[in-house]
Amino acid sequence: MAGEVTETDGFRPGWWLPGPHLQTMWGRLMRSRFLVDFTREALPTPDGDTLLLDHLEGSAGAPRVILLHGLEGSSFSVYIQGLALLVRNLGWRATALNFRSCARETGNRVTFIANDRPRLYHSGETSDLDLVVKTLAAREPGTPLSAIGVSLGGNVLLKWLGESPGQQLLRGAAVISVPYDLAAGARFMETGLGPLYVAALLRTLRQKGLDLVARFPEAASRIDVERMRRAHTFWEFDDAATGPLHGFAGADDYYARSSSLGFLPRITVPVLCINAGDDPFVPGALLPAVERAAPPNIETRFTKRGGHAGFVGGPWPVSPYYWAEEAIVSWLRRQV
Predict the structure, then answer these.
(1) What are 178-217's pLDDT values in tens digits?
(2) Would you call 211 a catalytic residue per the annotation?
(3) Contact 271/299 with Cβ under 8 angstroms?
């Protein structure tokens, strides 16, 4: 029902993970980051850089799913590994796109691989996804292709779909825990326990920014390095670094032009959106606006609980299940 966040499709959090923060952190602490074996490809980009793709191979002609991770994630993120395992169990294939500066050394989830151009990645950058979609579609014409995005990756996916109305390369798409309105999300992360999450994410983002400045003088001329060093909020970091580095006037301009909420009405393929009303990264009050903006081909499943990319259920922690991931893969199977 539009405007109301309800429990859907039988999801109930495990009793042993009663709050949003436990739901959010459980997987990151307890799930394996090595559930599937990927084959890595270095895909050249038009601007002289390289995208690192991690492929889960299978039978020729089997459907392929593009997987997009969240902020400071990678193909080793637990939810990407979980989704890839579910895809493999269907007999399908997957391709995980590591956003620029996010790829880790194979077998090492800690070490980032630096890129070769004076840029990073952000919530509204869709040209790399566009390259990947078109490359995969051209390699295997007729092979069913779909995509799943989580958090930032979901925002990128929705924005690309809205920028490409009528495209016929992806048959369907699904997203988990998308922020939708980046400005609202940034403000929300300044409340409650938000600053703790922000501090952890800014630690690596700041390191990447400093590395970029050291390697590329042109990046140093665009980034306000001292403001970036002192940043304690997403807005401060994005205003000093993300925005100007990528051609925006600042954080406000970046948020306004990159938020997926405004692109939803132009999406023409089937899409499933899953969010939790207690997400510590996304204000629950935003979800009714998402439902109002979504055209009939976008299905929303908004639950009261689940945290951020958590949705952990099960009667006991020895056998948890991840409801959103299972629901999305099951839904995509019906679209293909």
Answers:
(1) 999 999 999 999 999 999 999 999 999 999 999 999 999 9
(2) no
(3) yes
User: Is 20-181+261-335 a domain of CATH 3.40.50.1820?
Assistant: yes
Please give the average per-residue pLDDT across 301-327, as a whole number: 94
User: Per residue in 7-19, pLDDT tens?
Assistant: 445 689 999 999 9
Query: Which residue type sits at 125?
Result: E
- The two tokens of residue 66 are 């593009």
Which DSSP string do the residues of 231-292 spell out, in sequence order? Answer: --SHHHHIIIIIHHHTT-SSHHHHHHHH-GGGGGGG--S-EEEEEETT-SSS-GGGHHHHHH
Q: Which among 74, 146, 151, 164 is annotated as catalytic?
A: 151
Nearby residues of 24 by Cβ (< 8 Å), 6 or more positions away: 279, 280, 281, 307, 308, 309, 310
- Whole-angstrom Cα distance, residue 233 to residue 246? 19
Global pTM exceeds 0.90: yes
The residue length of the chain stands at 336
Angle at CA of residue 174, ends 173 and 175, nearest 5°: 135
| Domain layout of the chain by residue ranges | 20-181+261-335, 183-258
Write the pLDDT tens digit of every residue in 255-298. 999 999 999 999 999 999 999 999 999 999 999 999 999 999 99
Whole-angstrom Cα distance, residue 184 to residue 166? 29
Is residue 308 part of the annotated active site? The answer reads yes
| Catalytic hit among 128, 181, 239, 279 | 279
Locate 206 and state its tokens.
Answer: 């700041």
In the predicted model, what is the mean pLDDT of residues 88-101?
A: 98
Which sign, positive or negative, has the C-alpha torsion 240, 242, 246, 251? negative
- 330 carries an active-site annotation: no
Task: State residue 104's pLDDT score.
Answer: 93
Please tell me the distance from the alpha carbon of residue 167 to that of residue 205, in angstroms, as a whole number: 33
Query: What six digits make up the tokens of 116?
Result: 């070769």
